[in-house]
Amino acid sequence: MQIAQLIDFRLLxxxxxxNIKYMPAADNLNTPVAISGGGPVGLVLALFLDRHGVPSVxxxxxxxxxxxxxGSTHNSRTMEHYRRLGISAAVRRLGLPxxxxxxxxxxxxxxxxxxxxxxxxxxxxxxxxxxxxxxxAQNFEPIxxxxxxxxEEFLLRHARSRPNITLRFGWRVDSFSEDTxxxxxxxxxxxxxxxxQWRSAYLAGCDGGQSQVRRTLGIRYRGFDRLDxxxxxxxxxxxxxxxxxxxxxxxxxxxxxQYWVVNPQxxxxxxxxxxKDEFIYWTKLANDADEPDDEVIRRSLFQAAGTExxxxxxxxxxxxxxxxxxxxxxxxxxxxxxxxxxIHLFTPTGGFGMNTGIDDAANLxxxxxxxxxxWGGPRLLAGFELERMPIASRxxxxxxxxxxxxxEVQAPQEMEQDSxxxxxxxxxxxxxxxxxxxxxxxxxxxxxxxYDGSPLIVPDGTxxxxxxxxxxxxxxxxxRAPHLWLGDGPARTSLFDLFGIGFTLLRLGPQAANAxxxxxxxxxxxIPLDVIDVPNGEARDLYGRNxxxxxxxxxxxxxxxxxxxxxxxxxxxxxxRY
Length: 578
Description:
seven-stranded mixed β-sheet; D-Amino Acid Oxidase, Chain A, domain 2; 3 domains
């Protein structure tokens, strides 16, 4: 049995604090990084910075996490990020019961015909499959369905326990100004108008689609701002409901995660939240100027069910479907950066929105940490926009294309007839709907993010083609490091769990290549580096070289059969020093 071995010399603790590159002023509260916006992206950014040993403060206008349903998808890459933070198991305990199917079912009405069903496993089935998967299995942290409101509440609670995170929930960022030495930020407590002035080296705007930070910088969106179609297009509303009779009266024998209603009168969708009585219900407003109305939504639900049902309406959230927008810039070029909805807005098909934001945070966090701790170069932070902007446009456009598929579903008048013509119409619709599986999987979107062309990546080889539906692991620098299980049986270890907090040099295969010069150069430059031996032929085959250098965000930045002649030049490239 071959297990990866951690080399005895851990060259530099990533939590070691170096000289902070900003000047705190007297009578200010001081922090290396200020974060405006305490949603999942802002909180995960703070948690990653905490993992790197970097303090931050998080401002959020509301005094707690928002208790209204949003997306329910935490994709495989996001679950890998949660795993790095030590919280993936806790997140998996949230959401639907573990034995609840995550199927998507299409119906004429809740009490009508089932047109199609896309079968997807329960959480218990997914985790059992992952445990039994081959050693080279890539999807080792499978997608998880738990509504964002549950996970946000958990992230906030977890952030409160972390030593490097200061929370200012119930505070708004009123204004900020930048000078050559840092950021001065004015904050106001919403409840009573109390004020604080903060001084930080960097500011991250994770404050949503109406980002005050983005608007202050004068940065606009580009892309597509609407899509006109029968459903998942134009002005929509998500309604949080409690309907205790739906499971016993309609869904008991055909449990699913999502229920889509398709008939000549209506298109609607219902998403299960707790597997018992709470749901989020999507409807399209008749006109863009309309506001959600309880009675209109109630009648719409009755129509979708095919009969009146007891329902409590908890709240509404209007939104625009079909958008695919990304910001023209992701920063001010120096000390202020944007992430999440502040730089990209999605339609929810595919569940890509929050997950793309979490990936933003993973990319930005280590670069901010490098600058605060003194080992990042002047070109490092420019790599955030260069790497993430292509992903923002890629993912938003992918979600929009999936939304177009939904809008093209035909619902002829005879669809609900109990006749040969009705049966034929249902069969045609069902055959089309059954092709929608990629909306709920899209593993290529999840794991296939690449940073080819980045100045922080040393190219070597031909990258695999970008494929939204499939993911092929590759050792070509720029992509996610290929995964491998090490060892056998229940105690086997994920290679990802051995990666260091900083950079990780993998020595692959039975003949370990010399790593001494790179280790020495990293130590001289104060760059955090772990060296790990993986004496495993499968690992060598996955990466295609004897050595692979992994960034803190788990992307490969260099590989080779031997160290380059100038290790300092390599380190200067990947840390943005030149």
